[in-house]
């Protein structure tokens, strides 16, 4: 992104606007995939896997 900004010589105001647009898009992606980003189901699986690796049990 920064390469494109320098290539077309954007003004600081335009760069701020672009940053806000990217931020809004990122927030939309996170909210659309809320389960992917905020789910804690994987934590239990990781804990079980590390315990099994340490003890040799499954």
Structure summary:
This protein is mainly alpha-helical and 58 residues long.
Describe this structure in words.
The chain has 4 helices and no strands. With 58 residues, the protein is mostly helical. The radius of gyration is 21 Å and the shape is elongated. The termini are far apart. The mean pLDDT is 76.
Strand content: under 5%
Return the average pLDDT rounded to an integer.
76
Specify Rg, calculated over alpha carbons.
21 Å
Name the helix and strand elements from N-terminus to C-terminus, one letter apiece: HHHH
Give the beta-strand count. Answer: 0
Uncertain runs are: none
Major β-sheet annotation: none
**SS-derived structural category:** mainly alpha
Distance between the termini: 46 Å
Q: Which shape, going by the Cα principal axes?
A: elongated
- Percent in helix: over 70%
Please report the number of helical segments.
4
What topology emerges from the helices and strands here?
Elements: H1 2-7, H2 12-32, H3 34-38, H4 41-55
Provide the descriptors you would attach to this structure in a database record.
58 residues
């Amino acid at each position: 992104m920064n390469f494109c900004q320098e290539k077309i010589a954007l003004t600081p105001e335009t760069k701020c606007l672009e940053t806000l647009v990217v931020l809004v898009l990122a927030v939309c992606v996170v909210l659309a995939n809320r389960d992917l980003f905020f789910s804690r189901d994987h934590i239990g699986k990781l804990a079980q896997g590390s315990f099994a690796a340490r003890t040799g049990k499954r």
